[in-house]
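Quick one: structure for this chain?
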Amino acid sequence: MLTRSLAILLAPWLPLGALMLPMSAAHRIDGLVAGALGIVLSAFSLSNDRARIAAAAVGAWVALTALVFPSTLLEATLALSWGALMFAWLAGPFSTRPAVITSVAPAAAADARDGHLPLAA
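Got it. Here's what it folds into:
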């Protein structure tokens, strides 16, 4: 749950970076669209696991766009860092809800000698 909250804080950075930094048209559009989807889906990820997986998929897509589209070092750094963190935080092991696992103790084994406890030697 902590990583879901951190993803909500990280989600607005991609559209902000797409608007403020000098990026190509493909990365700017991808950053705005994927960033807006990431904001909405990461907000809904607190209550819905499907939204969590969808936001993780958006993060994986953004991380791969640096490899698909021709990009500068700035564009690759922004896309890979945002996408990898969103994917890891929303699909990683600490993103699931805390669960309490209980188990029943096994029954004590019955002694073969008339149900009495063994005597000390």
